Amino acid sequence: MPELPEVEGLALDLAGRLTDRAIVRVDLAAFSALKTFDPPLSALSGALVESVTRHGKFLDINAAGLHLVLHLSRAGWVRWRDEVPALPPRPSNKSPFAARVVLDDGSGLDITEAGTRKRLAIYVVRDPLEVPGIATLGPDPLEDAFTIDVLGRILEDAGRSQIKGVLRHQGTIAGIGNAYSDELLHAARLSPFKPSNSLTDEELQTLFDAIKQVLGEAVARSRGLHAADLKGEKKSHLSVHGRAGQPCPVCGDTVREVSFADSSLQYCPTCQTGGKLLADRRMSRLLK
């Protein structure tokens, strides 16, 4: 799933390609992806793109006061085309195409979603806050307003909720998903199941520093990359996420995995749990 650094990279890349170009039309191939009806997609025809920005994991294309907002969800992505095909993508349950944005110079943007579980969402709104997921976003962890005191209050308010779930909840902190929550906790040397309100002052400071550094460095690496290169850049710099069975780059221990019904997490026992293994079940506890 694209998270804060990749969506920031997409916004920067697309801003350079779309800004000051007029949208000719938006071809919709997956009708279930469109979550709004007023304004209609046709209202974007002829609109000049003014900016491309990010709200958490939402991509916002501002065109003459209308906002084409994309949430790529788990398997969505965008693909730039220097020249779009003459025929629009045909609606099909088996096709990865969700929509295509066609620009006035013949270039365009394909919006796709792999797999059968279709969760990608497209909105056309007059104000981004009309999108429910944006209206309820927590603070952005890379903004100056996100301080250690803000993080401390978030974790304290979460009580004994497991810290991984708190970090990736978009209404609590915007933009952190499954992958980067694993990476942040590894960098901070914290168990993913540690109660949120149990951190010492030193652990809180370490986690705060990890959030700013890991996400900040990932965003910096994403700047200047084309959309096609962002996924590979992310994967090549992960320390534990998606690396179960491989050696931890910090201590050399084997990276372990906990699987859930529709997701998984990865961690290093030596770095994060004092060498103990986490039980591989939903209500996991440290094995004794």
What descriptors fit this protein?
288 residues; 8 helices; 20% strand; alpha+beta; four-stranded antiparallel sheet; N-terminal domain of MutM-like DNA repair proteins
Write the layout of secondary structure elements.
Blueprint: H1 4-18, E1 23-28, E2 49-55, E3 58-63, E4 66-71, E5 76-81, E6 97-103, E7 108-113, E8 121-125, H2 132-135, H3 148-157, H4 163-168, H5 178-187, H6 201-222, H7 227-236, E9 256-259, E10 264-267, H8 269-272
Antiparallel strand pairs: 1-6, 2-3, 3-4, 4-8, 5-7, 6-7, 9-10
Description:
One of its GO terms (molecular function) is zinc ion binding. Belongs to the FPG family. It catalyses: Hydrolysis of DNA containing ring-opened 7-methylguanine residues, releasing 2,6-diamino-4-hydroxy-5-(N-methyl)formamidopyrimidine. It holds the Pfam family H2TH. The protein has 288 residues and is of the alpha+beta class. It folds into two domains: 132 residues, MutM-like, N-terminal (N-terminal domain of MutM-like DNA repair proteins, Alpha-Beta Barrel); 125 residues, Orthogonal Bundle (Helicase, Ruva Protein, domain 3). 28% of the residues lie in helices and 20% in strands. The chain has eight helices and ten strands. The strands form three sheets. A four-stranded antiparallel β-sheet has the order 1-6-7-5, with no helix packed on it. Strand 3 and strand 4 form a beta hairpin. Helix 1 runs antiparallel to helix 7. It is elongated and about 60 Å long. It starts with a helix and ends in a 16-residue tail after the last helix. 39% of the residues are buried. The C terminus is likely disordered.
